[in-house]
Amino acid sequence: MTASSSDSPDNTPDPAALFVALVIAPGTFSRNKHFDLFLPQEASYQRRRAQLVRTIVRDLTEPWKIPGSQRTHAGVDELSEALEGDRVVLRYAIYALELKRESRLTLLEAATLHYALHRAGLGTLSTQDRSLVENTLSRMTPLL
């Protein structure tokens, strides 16, 4: 295997920073264009976690068509967050779609979710979440 510039330690982003970048701006580091970036197991894991958080953002922000109806359902019927140890347990339900979901997120994943939802016009963003996300994202600089 040939070495590329993204294989060197000086050019490899922090995995947590990569996660935040993939949630906030998913098209920035596509797997096809930056294949070597996702070869390390940790980077691949962060890519999957980012995909999970983006799916949650989509679930919580998009209006959903109710099956067999002309109407759409524009929101979540139930939404709760609880801190369990070092994880945030997120639960939500959209009754019209018979959808219930539970996800266990790290504190950074939950903060990034709050950040993305705030950018989408939903919810408030705490100073703590903003600082965590922006400080983590600042560690992306080796690639920028």
What does this structure look like?
With 144 residues, the chain is α+β, with helices and mostly antiparallel strands. The chain has one domain. It is 38% helix and 19% strand. The protein has 4 helices and 5 strands. The chain has helices at residues 15-24, 41-61, 107-119, 127-137; strands at 64-65, 72-73, 78-84, 87-94, 99-106. The strands form 2 sheets. It has a 3-stranded antiparallel sheet with strand order 3-4-5. It has a two-stranded antiparallel sheet with strand order 1-2. A hairpin with a 4-residue loop joins strand 4 (87-94) and strand 5 (99-106). Helix 1 (15-24) runs parallel beside helix 3 (107-119). The radius of gyration is 17 Å and the shape is globular. Mean pLDDT is 80; it is low at 1-10.
Structural class by secondary-structure content: alpha+beta
Strand content: 15-25%
Please summarize the sheet with the most strands: 3 strands, antiparallel
Number of helices: 4
Poorly predicted ranges: 1-10
- State the separation between the terminal residues, measured CA to CA: 25 Å
